[in-house]
Write a structure and sequence with these properties.
The complex is a heterodimer of chains A (253) and B (97). With 253 residues, chain A is of the alpha/beta class. Chain A has one domain: BirA Bifunctional Protein, domain 2. Chain A is 38% helix and 27% strand. Chain A is built from 10 helices and 11 strands. In chain A, a hairpin with a 3-residue loop joins strand 7 and strand 8. In chain A, helix 1 crosses helix 9 and helix 4 packs across helix 8. Chain B has a domain of 63 residues. Chain B contains 3 helices and 5 strands, in the order E-E-E-E-H-H-E-H. Chain B has a 3-stranded antiparallel sheet, covered by helices on one side. Chain B has a two-stranded antiparallel sheet with strand order 4-5. In chain B, a hairpin with a 2-residue loop joins strand 2 and strand 3. In chain B, 41% of the residues are buried. The chains are: A alpha/beta (253), B alpha+beta (97). Chains A and B meet through strand 9 of A and strand 3 and strand 4 of B.
Amino acid sequence: MAVFRYLETGENPAVFNMGLDEAILESVASGAEPPTLRLYAWRPRAVSIGYFQGLREEVDLDRCAELGVDVVRRLTGGGAVFHAAELTYSVVVPETHPLVSGDILHSYRALGAGVVAGLSELGIASEFSGLNDVASGGKKLSGNAQTRRRGCVLQHGTVLLGVDPEAMFSVLLVPDEKLKGKLISDVRARVSSVSDALGREVGYAEAVAAFERGFASALGGLEERSEPSGAELERARALASERFSSEAWTARR
Amino acid sequence: MKGSYVGKAEGRKLLRLTLEWNGGVVMRADIRGDFFAHPEEGFDEAESALIGAPVADLGRTFASELASRGVVLFGLTPDDVGEAAAAIVARIEAEER
Protein backbone atom coordinates (compact mmCIF):
# COMPACT_ATOMS: atom_id res chain seq x y z
CA MET A 1 0.00 0.00 0.00
CA ALA A 2 1.13 3.56 -0.69
CA VAL A 3 2.35 5.45 2.36
CA PHE A 4 0.03 8.24 3.46
CA ARG A 5 1.01 11.90 3.37
CA TYR A 6 0.87 13.29 6.90
CA LEU A 7 -0.21 16.85 7.76
CA GLU A 8 -0.52 18.38 11.21
CA THR A 9 -2.07 21.82 10.89
CA GLY A 10 -2.68 22.88 14.52
CA GLU A 11 -5.56 25.13 15.54
CA ASN A 12 -7.68 26.93 12.95
CA PRO A 13 -11.20 28.39 12.68
CA ALA A 14 -14.03 25.98 11.89
CA VAL A 15 -14.71 27.24 8.36
CA PHE A 16 -11.04 26.89 7.41
CA ASN A 17 -10.85 23.39 8.88
CA MET A 18 -13.84 22.25 6.84
CA GLY A 19 -12.49 24.04 3.76
CA LEU A 20 -9.11 22.35 4.10
CA ASP A 21 -10.66 18.88 4.48
CA GLU A 22 -12.58 19.46 1.23
CA ALA A 23 -9.52 20.99 -0.52
CA ILE A 24 -7.48 17.90 0.40
CA LEU A 25 -10.28 15.69 -0.91
CA GLU A 26 -10.14 17.55 -4.22
CA SER A 27 -6.35 17.34 -4.49
CA VAL A 28 -6.29 13.60 -3.71
CA ALA A 29 -9.17 13.03 -6.14
CA SER A 30 -7.30 14.84 -8.92
CA GLY A 31 -4.15 12.82 -8.28
CA ALA A 32 -2.18 15.93 -7.29
CA GLU A 33 -1.58 14.51 -3.80
CA PRO A 34 -1.39 11.00 -2.34
CA PRO A 35 -3.80 9.60 0.29
CA THR A 36 -3.56 11.95 3.25
CA LEU A 37 -3.93 11.99 7.02
CA ARG A 38 -4.40 15.34 8.74
CA LEU A 39 -4.42 15.99 12.49
CA TYR A 40 -5.82 19.32 13.65
CA ALA A 41 -7.68 21.35 16.26
CA TRP A 42 -10.14 24.24 16.44
CA ARG A 43 -9.76 27.85 17.57
CA PRO A 44 -12.05 29.43 18.50
CA ARG A 45 -14.17 26.64 19.91
CA ALA A 46 -16.86 25.55 17.48
CA VAL A 47 -19.95 23.45 16.94
CA SER A 48 -20.11 21.43 13.74
CA ILE A 49 -23.42 19.98 12.63
CA GLY A 50 -24.06 17.08 10.30
CA TYR A 51 -25.05 17.51 6.66
CA PHE A 52 -28.66 16.49 7.34
CA GLN A 53 -29.26 18.27 10.63
CA GLY A 54 -31.47 21.29 11.19
CA LEU A 55 -29.29 24.16 12.41
CA ARG A 56 -31.65 25.78 14.89
CA GLU A 57 -32.91 22.44 16.21
CA GLU A 58 -29.42 21.32 17.19
CA VAL A 59 -27.58 24.48 18.23
CA ASP A 60 -28.35 27.35 20.60
CA LEU A 61 -27.05 30.08 18.30
CA ASP A 62 -27.50 32.87 20.85
CA ARG A 63 -25.47 30.95 23.42
CA CYS A 64 -22.78 30.26 20.83
CA ALA A 65 -22.55 33.99 20.11
CA GLU A 66 -22.29 34.77 23.83
CA LEU A 67 -19.49 32.24 24.31
CA GLY A 68 -17.65 33.07 21.07
CA VAL A 69 -18.31 29.58 19.68
CA ASP A 70 -18.28 29.30 15.87
CA VAL A 71 -20.87 27.18 14.03
CA VAL A 72 -20.24 25.28 10.81
CA ARG A 73 -22.07 22.65 8.77
CA ARG A 74 -19.98 19.64 7.71
CA LEU A 75 -19.91 17.85 4.37
CA THR A 76 -20.49 14.65 6.33
CA GLY A 77 -23.59 13.31 8.03
CA GLY A 78 -23.82 12.43 11.70
CA GLY A 79 -24.54 14.53 14.74
CA ALA A 80 -23.58 17.88 16.20
CA VAL A 81 -20.17 18.09 17.87
CA PHE A 82 -18.76 20.67 20.26
CA HIS A 83 -15.10 21.11 19.34
CA ALA A 84 -13.07 22.37 22.30
CA ALA A 85 -10.29 20.35 23.96
CA GLU A 86 -9.90 17.71 21.31
CA LEU A 87 -7.80 16.20 18.58
CA THR A 88 -9.47 15.95 15.18
CA TYR A 89 -8.30 13.81 12.29
CA SER A 90 -9.23 13.56 8.65
CA VAL A 91 -8.26 10.82 6.23
CA VAL A 92 -8.72 11.16 2.48
CA VAL A 93 -8.19 8.11 0.32
CA PRO A 94 -9.37 6.98 -3.13
CA GLU A 95 -12.30 4.55 -3.04
CA THR A 96 -10.11 2.05 -4.89
CA HIS A 97 -7.64 1.86 -1.97
CA PRO A 98 -7.66 -1.58 -0.26
CA LEU A 99 -8.43 0.01 3.13
CA VAL A 100 -11.82 1.28 1.94
CA SER A 101 -12.71 -1.08 -0.89
CA GLY A 102 -15.09 -3.13 1.26
CA ASP A 103 -18.50 -1.99 2.45
CA ILE A 104 -18.97 1.32 4.23
CA LEU A 105 -19.07 -0.17 7.73
CA HIS A 106 -15.79 -1.96 7.03
CA SER A 107 -14.20 1.25 5.77
CA TYR A 108 -15.27 3.17 8.90
CA ARG A 109 -13.52 0.62 11.00
CA ALA A 110 -10.43 0.35 8.81
CA LEU A 111 -9.83 4.12 8.97
CA GLY A 112 -11.06 4.49 12.55
CA ALA A 113 -8.59 1.80 13.62
CA GLY A 114 -6.16 4.73 13.85
CA VAL A 115 -8.30 6.17 16.65
CA VAL A 116 -8.40 2.87 18.54
CA ALA A 117 -4.63 2.45 18.07
CA GLY A 118 -3.95 6.05 19.13
CA LEU A 119 -5.99 5.58 22.29
CA SER A 120 -4.09 2.36 22.93
CA GLU A 121 -0.82 4.31 22.60
CA LEU A 122 -2.11 6.51 25.43
CA GLY A 123 -3.01 3.44 27.52
CA ILE A 124 -6.77 3.37 26.86
CA ALA A 125 -8.50 0.22 25.62
CA SER A 126 -11.38 1.10 23.31
CA GLU A 127 -13.62 -0.39 20.67
CA PHE A 128 -16.05 0.61 17.97
CA SER A 129 -19.59 1.21 19.13
CA GLY A 130 -22.39 1.27 16.56
CA LEU A 131 -21.61 2.62 13.10
CA ASN A 132 -19.39 5.53 13.91
CA ASP A 133 -18.40 5.87 17.57
CA VAL A 134 -15.38 4.68 19.54
CA ALA A 135 -16.02 4.04 23.22
CA SER A 136 -14.14 2.94 26.30
CA GLY A 137 -15.96 1.41 29.23
CA GLY A 138 -19.30 2.24 27.59
CA LYS A 139 -18.47 5.93 27.30
CA LYS A 140 -17.97 7.64 23.97
CA LEU A 141 -14.51 9.08 23.37
CA SER A 142 -14.65 9.58 19.62
CA GLY A 143 -17.23 10.24 16.91
CA ASN A 144 -16.48 9.69 13.23
CA ALA A 145 -18.19 10.63 9.97
CA GLN A 146 -17.60 9.83 6.34
CA THR A 147 -18.52 11.14 2.91
CA ARG A 148 -17.68 9.82 -0.55
CA ARG A 149 -17.15 12.34 -3.33
CA ARG A 150 -15.13 12.55 -6.55
CA GLY A 151 -14.12 8.91 -6.19
CA CYS A 152 -12.58 9.49 -2.76
CA VAL A 153 -13.50 8.77 0.85
CA LEU A 154 -13.18 11.58 3.38
CA GLN A 155 -13.49 10.39 6.96
CA HIS A 156 -13.01 12.78 9.83
CA GLY A 157 -13.50 12.33 13.52
CA THR A 158 -12.79 13.74 16.92
CA VAL A 159 -11.08 12.47 20.03
CA LEU A 160 -12.22 14.21 23.19
CA LEU A 161 -9.15 15.16 25.23
CA GLY A 162 -11.10 17.05 27.89
CA VAL A 163 -14.75 17.80 28.37
CA ASP A 164 -16.61 20.83 29.66
CA PRO A 165 -20.17 19.48 30.02
CA GLU A 166 -21.57 22.84 31.07
CA ALA A 167 -20.39 24.60 27.92
CA MET A 168 -21.13 21.57 25.71
CA PHE A 169 -24.73 21.19 26.79
CA SER A 170 -25.39 24.90 26.80
CA VAL A 171 -24.63 25.13 23.05
CA LEU A 172 -25.94 21.71 21.92
CA LEU A 173 -29.68 21.06 22.03
CA VAL A 174 -30.09 17.35 22.72
CA PRO A 175 -33.68 16.06 22.39
CA ASP A 176 -34.90 13.42 24.84
CA GLU A 177 -35.61 11.09 21.90
CA LYS A 178 -31.89 10.84 21.13
CA LEU A 179 -31.24 9.05 24.39
CA LYS A 180 -33.76 6.25 23.87
CA GLY A 181 -32.16 2.83 23.96
CA LYS A 182 -28.87 4.13 25.32
CA LEU A 183 -27.28 2.23 28.20
CA ILE A 184 -26.64 5.46 30.00
CA SER A 185 -29.63 7.75 29.60
CA ASP A 186 -28.02 10.82 31.18
CA VAL A 187 -26.30 12.46 28.24
CA ARG A 188 -23.73 14.07 30.51
CA ALA A 189 -22.77 10.71 31.96
CA ARG A 190 -22.28 9.26 28.47
CA VAL A 191 -19.53 11.70 27.57
CA SER A 192 -16.01 11.13 28.72
CA SER A 193 -12.55 12.20 27.61
CA VAL A 194 -9.01 10.93 27.36
CA SER A 195 -8.05 13.03 30.38
CA ASP A 196 -10.95 11.61 32.42
CA ALA A 197 -10.05 8.06 31.41
CA LEU A 198 -6.40 8.45 32.40
CA GLY A 199 -6.92 10.61 35.48
CA ARG A 200 -4.46 13.20 34.21
CA GLU A 201 -4.53 16.01 31.69
CA VAL A 202 -3.62 15.05 28.15
CA GLY A 203 -3.00 17.99 25.83
CA TYR A 204 -2.98 18.33 22.06
CA ALA A 205 0.80 17.84 21.61
CA GLU A 206 0.86 14.58 23.56
CA ALA A 207 -2.21 13.37 21.67
CA VAL A 208 -0.65 14.22 18.29
CA ALA A 209 2.40 12.09 19.09
CA ALA A 210 0.21 9.14 20.13
CA PHE A 211 -2.16 9.37 17.18
CA GLU A 212 0.70 9.73 14.69
CA ARG A 213 1.84 6.30 15.85
CA GLY A 214 -1.69 4.93 15.95
CA PHE A 215 -2.56 6.05 12.42
CA ALA A 216 0.84 4.98 11.07
CA SER A 217 0.01 1.49 12.26
CA ALA A 218 -3.59 1.52 10.98
CA LEU A 219 -2.86 3.10 7.59
CA GLY A 220 0.29 1.12 6.77
CA GLY A 221 2.77 3.95 7.28
CA LEU A 222 3.04 7.76 7.17
CA GLU A 223 5.41 10.05 5.33
CA GLU A 224 7.34 12.65 7.32
CA ARG A 225 5.09 15.41 8.61
CA SER A 226 4.58 18.07 5.92
CA GLU A 227 2.42 21.07 5.06
CA PRO A 228 -0.62 21.39 2.80
CA SER A 229 0.32 22.59 -0.68
CA GLY A 230 -0.09 26.24 -1.61
CA ALA A 231 -2.92 25.27 -3.94
CA GLU A 232 -4.69 23.40 -1.14
CA LEU A 233 -4.39 26.35 1.24
CA GLU A 234 -5.69 28.74 -1.40
CA ARG A 235 -8.61 26.43 -2.19
CA ALA A 236 -9.33 25.93 1.53
CA ARG A 237 -9.58 29.69 2.04
CA ALA A 238 -11.92 29.98 -0.94
CA LEU A 239 -14.16 27.15 0.32
CA ALA A 240 -14.12 28.63 3.84
CA SER A 241 -15.32 31.93 2.50
CA GLU A 242 -17.67 30.82 -0.27
CA ARG A 243 -19.26 27.70 1.20
CA PHE A 244 -18.63 27.15 4.88
CA SER A 245 -19.14 30.81 5.97
CA SER A 246 -22.32 31.22 3.94
CA GLU A 247 -25.75 31.34 5.53
CA ALA A 248 -27.10 29.45 2.52
CA TRP A 249 -24.91 26.47 3.46
CA THR A 250 -24.99 26.65 7.24
CA ALA A 251 -28.77 27.16 7.51
CA ARG A 252 -29.71 24.99 4.51
CA ARG A 253 -31.71 22.74 6.81
CA MET B 1 -52.21 20.37 6.90
CA LYS B 2 -48.86 20.38 8.59
CA GLY B 3 -47.14 18.48 11.37
CA SER B 4 -43.79 17.33 12.65
CA TYR B 5 -42.22 14.26 14.20
CA VAL B 6 -39.11 13.65 16.29
CA GLY B 7 -38.15 10.08 17.09
CA LYS B 8 -35.53 7.42 17.13
CA ALA B 9 -36.21 3.79 16.29
CA GLU B 10 -34.20 1.14 18.13
CA GLY B 11 -30.66 0.98 16.76
CA ARG B 12 -31.19 3.94 14.47
CA LYS B 13 -30.25 7.62 14.43
CA LEU B 14 -32.53 10.51 15.34
CA LEU B 15 -35.15 11.38 12.72
CA ARG B 16 -36.98 14.69 12.44
CA LEU B 17 -39.69 15.03 9.81
CA THR B 18 -41.73 18.10 8.95
CA LEU B 19 -44.60 17.34 6.60
CA GLU B 20 -47.15 19.46 4.77
CA TRP B 21 -49.90 17.85 2.73
CA ASN B 22 -53.14 18.76 1.04
CA GLY B 23 -55.78 16.35 -0.24
CA GLY B 24 -53.54 13.38 0.54
CA VAL B 25 -50.66 14.79 -1.52
CA VAL B 26 -47.29 15.84 -0.10
CA MET B 27 -46.62 19.57 -0.47
CA ARG B 28 -43.39 19.58 1.55
CA ALA B 29 -41.28 16.96 3.33
CA ASP B 30 -38.17 18.00 5.27
CA ILE B 31 -36.16 15.06 6.62
CA ARG B 32 -33.46 15.91 9.13
CA GLY B 33 -31.32 14.10 11.67
CA ASP B 34 -27.92 12.65 12.51
CA PHE B 35 -28.10 9.78 10.02
CA PHE B 36 -25.78 9.22 7.04
CA ALA B 37 -26.57 8.92 3.34
CA HIS B 38 -24.19 8.32 0.45
CA PRO B 39 -24.22 10.23 -1.82
CA GLU B 40 -25.67 13.09 0.21
CA GLU B 41 -26.88 15.05 -2.82
CA GLY B 42 -28.84 11.99 -3.99
CA PHE B 43 -30.69 12.06 -0.70
CA ASP B 44 -31.50 15.77 -1.22
CA GLU B 45 -32.90 14.98 -4.67
CA ALA B 46 -34.95 12.02 -3.43
CA GLU B 47 -36.37 14.20 -0.66
CA SER B 48 -37.35 16.90 -3.18
CA ALA B 49 -39.00 14.25 -5.35
CA LEU B 50 -41.46 13.47 -2.55
CA ILE B 51 -43.42 16.62 -3.39
CA GLY B 52 -46.57 15.56 -5.22
CA ALA B 53 -46.42 11.96 -3.93
CA PRO B 54 -49.36 10.42 -2.07
CA VAL B 55 -48.76 11.01 1.62
CA ALA B 56 -49.96 7.47 2.40
CA ASP B 57 -47.14 6.07 0.23
CA LEU B 58 -44.34 8.31 1.47
CA GLY B 59 -42.07 5.48 2.68
CA ARG B 60 -42.43 3.45 -0.52
CA THR B 61 -41.97 6.51 -2.73
CA PHE B 62 -38.87 7.57 -0.79
CA ALA B 63 -37.40 4.05 -1.07
CA SER B 64 -37.93 4.11 -4.82
CA GLU B 65 -36.45 7.60 -5.25
CA LEU B 66 -33.39 6.68 -3.18
CA ALA B 67 -32.88 3.40 -5.04
CA SER B 68 -33.10 5.07 -8.44
CA ARG B 69 -30.22 7.35 -7.40
CA GLY B 70 -28.14 4.62 -5.78
CA VAL B 71 -28.37 6.24 -2.35
CA VAL B 72 -27.35 4.10 0.65
CA LEU B 73 -28.66 5.05 4.12
CA PHE B 74 -27.13 4.39 7.53
CA GLY B 75 -29.07 4.92 10.74
CA LEU B 76 -32.35 5.49 8.87
CA THR B 77 -34.64 3.52 6.58
CA PRO B 78 -37.34 4.72 4.16
CA ASP B 79 -39.83 2.81 6.32
CA ASP B 80 -38.85 4.98 9.29
CA VAL B 81 -39.77 8.03 7.23
CA GLY B 82 -43.05 6.44 6.10
CA GLU B 83 -43.96 5.53 9.67
CA ALA B 84 -43.10 9.02 10.89
CA ALA B 85 -45.35 10.48 8.17
CA ALA B 86 -48.20 8.14 9.16
CA ALA B 87 -47.81 9.18 12.80
CA ILE B 88 -47.98 12.86 11.86
CA VAL B 89 -51.06 12.39 9.66
CA ALA B 90 -52.87 10.31 12.31
CA ARG B 91 -52.14 12.86 15.01
CA ILE B 92 -53.05 15.95 13.02
CA GLU B 93 -56.21 14.41 11.57
CA ALA B 94 -57.31 13.34 15.07
CA GLU B 95 -56.78 16.90 16.28
CA GLU B 96 -58.83 18.24 13.36
CA ARG B 97 -61.83 16.05 14.18
